[in-house]
Amino acid sequence: MAIGEFDLIKCYFERSASSAGVELGIGDDCALLDVPAGKHLAVSMDTLVAGVHFPADASSRLIAERALRVNLSDLAAMGAEPLWFTLGLTLPEPNPDWLENFSVGLFAAADEFNCVLVGGDTTRGPLSMTLQVHGAVDSKNALRRSGARIGDLVCVTGCLGDGAAALAVIQDKLWPGEDAREYLLDRFYRPRPQLVEGQLLLGVASAALDISDGLIADLGHICECSNVGAIVDIERLPLSSAMRANVSVMQANTWALAGGDDYQLCFTLPPAKQLALQTLIDSGQLQATIVGEIVSGSGVICRSEGVEVNLSATGYNHF
Amino acid sequence: MAIGEFDLIKCYFERSASSAGVELGIGDDCALLDVPAGKHLAVSMDTLVAGVHFPADASSRLIAERALRVNLSDLAAMGAEPLWFTLGLTLPEPNPDWLENFSVGLFAAADEFNCVLVGGDTTRGPLSMTLQVHGAVDSKNALRRSGARIGDLVCVTGCLGDGAAALAVIQDKLWPGEDAREYLLDRFYRPRPQLVEGQLLLGVASAALDISDGLIADLGHICECSNVGAIVDIERLPLSSAMRANVSVMQANTWALAGGDDYQLCFTLPPAKQLALQTLIDSGQLQATIVGEIVSGSGVICRSEGVEVNLSATGYNHF
Questions:
Q1: Per the domain annotation, does A144 fall within a domain?
Q2: Does residue B163 share a domain with residue B96?
């Protein structure tokens, strides 16, 4: 089946989306967009390569859905609200079934998080994709990595380690029961970008990022950008029962600290904001756990039973 | 040499660029950007794959320089002014020499066209790159593909066919003298995005795009978006002496009509604006040639010596 680039775009990706702020969408040399007045434009780009970030034979629906969700996680980490995204898609061949499923997954995530496809590029080559998400965030409050101060508390949203546990399931190294398996695979393929949570933390958190490479590695970035150190109490790490029931404590903690693909937020909290956080938690708006504190010095120290432990594990390194 | 993703970004791509509109650049979850008041944000994404868009063993300096220039050509086609760009770079391995040269080429083009690198992603995989350029354009005047009207003149900037001729040189199918060879290779590796020209055409041209797939194919997009047809007079096509001196008239015209990679602008001109265009040309601000006219109907008709000719050649199709 010979399908041209332009037909392909029209067939699978062009939807008549007359969305707020989209003056001109797919189909011209550029998309023309209007950022809401008084807001910063927040942008983040992610590249995903077959065989590196996902198995080449994985479901294209899940690949697409995961790709957009993971990219949206970067907006969440700034406290930004999603607006638009672009997609650069490279395919060995334009297989109609693959594309149909890919577009279903892509638009499912796009619709769920109110993020509109406004442009991109399609080309032939080894399977990979680059997405860029665009969001809006209040000029003053955006959650940066550089705002942590000594004495702040270290917090995380949700549970940690599920991403690494799911990868073990996918790699046939972990065999939990059906419910746990389903929960973990859903966490991996359909991670929930903490967008609402990020926006709730505007004016509350002093620094934030999303945990893609493991808590130690990512909290380390906050420490580096803020010129501080951090202590994490291993016993306080939030672990899902689905993971916890199927692995040892040691394995669960290692995945929570150094596994990747969790896409929860790690944020720091000035002591004066602890009540505000507790109110958000008590009202059911935010699931968050205090796991440590910011200290002077540099780097992340892990503590178990009150004593420092030396873990050689580090975050996932793309090279 | 084991070099981590973060070191790699810092080493080759992080420059302390405190540029207008960049509230936060590389190094956080998102870049934070401010679009000039009263302007649309114009964005365009291009993916370039080794073995498809450039030879895998081509100079990384030239690959980078060409990639950004080609992407900027999309901003030119809207009449937009460049602001920022992002880069998703996928590499088989982080070779320091390759990266050093790549960054030299990238920043040479970025500096020449006042476009600041604000973020992106680096990952391991088959060599490819996705760039997204961001520009600003006046809300009312942006040059779209849909504005051509019956009776408008069809114009192009610069010369056509040099991109295809250069590709023939690179593929060792054409052997011009040293000067012509140098001129053509420079046109291929360092195409000049018609940014100044595009901005000059705001309020003058009724429609525009950049010619990446050949005049017939690209003018065809204007026709389709504007619901009109077009006639091109082959004898009026602007050809460079470097190309013309080394190939037959037939070859030169074919490349001018159906070759790719020219990155000149094709635009349509209401008759009432012909004087304005002539003034721009006479003052030396714009090099442009009238090559045809917009008519009723659909599609692009080519005319030679006043008579329609049927050319089977079509634009480059990525699939």
A1: no
A2: no
Chain B, nearest residue to A84 by Cα: B43
- Average pLDDT (B31-55) is 93
Q: Report in angstroms the alpha-carbon separations of A315 from A45, A47, A211, A276, B273.
A: 20, 18, 10, 31, 61
Residue entry with tokens 């209007």: A34
* Contact yes or no for B126 and A125 at CB 8 A: yes
Question: What CATH number should be reported for the domain holding residue A98?
Answer: 3.30.1330.10
Q: What distance in Å separates the CA atoms of residue A221 and residue A236, rounded to the nearest whole number? A: 21
Q: Calculate the CA A37 to chain-centre distance.
A: 26
Shared-domain flag, residues A82 and A50: yes
Give the distance, in angstroms, between the CA of residue B195 and the centroid of all CA atoms in the same chain. Answer: 10
| Residue where a domain stops, chosen among B108, B138, B168 | B138
The A22-24 sheet, strands edge to edge:
A22-24, A31-33, B39-49, B128-138, B81-91, B116-124
Contact list, B122 vs chain A (CB under 8 Å):
47, 318-319
Q: State chain A's mean pLDDT as an integer.
A: 91
Per-residue confidence (pLDDT) for residue B313, from 0 to 100:
47
Three-state secondary structure of B42-63: EEEEEEEEECCCECCCCCHHHH
Q: Which of B111, B138, B165 is the last residue of a domain?
A: B138
Alpha-carbon distance B5 to nearest alpha carbon in chain A (angstroms): 6
B26 pLDDT band, cuts 50/70/90, is confident
Count up the domains in chain A and report the number: 2
Per-residue pLDDT band for B82 (boundaries 50, 70, 90) equals: very high
Whole-model pTM?
Answer: 0.90
Return the amino acid letter for B129.
M
Instruction: Kindly report which listed range (A213-222, B17-26, B235-244) carries the lowest average pLDDT score.
Output: B17-26
Which tokens is A139 given?
A: 């000029």
The answer to whether A1 contacts chain B (CB < 8 Å) is no
Residue A192 contacts residue A69 (beta carbons within 8 Å): yes
Would residue B244 count as lying in a domain? yes
The DSSP H or E segment spanning A272 is none
CA nearest neighbour of B238 among B159, B315, B137:
B159
| Coil vs helix vs strand at B227 | coil
Structural domain of residue A67, as residue ranges?
Answer: 5-138
The confidence score (pLDDT) of residue B298 equals 94
User: Given CB atoms, is A224 within the 8 Å cutoff of chain B?
Assistant: no
pLDDT at A311 (0 to 100): 74
Closest CA to B74 of B23, B153, B142, B15: B142
- Tell me what pLDDT residue B269 has: 97
Å between A306 CA and nearest CA of chain B: 32
Instruction: Tell me, yes or no, whether B37 and B161 share the same domain.
Output: no
Structure confidence at residue A5 (pLDDT): 56
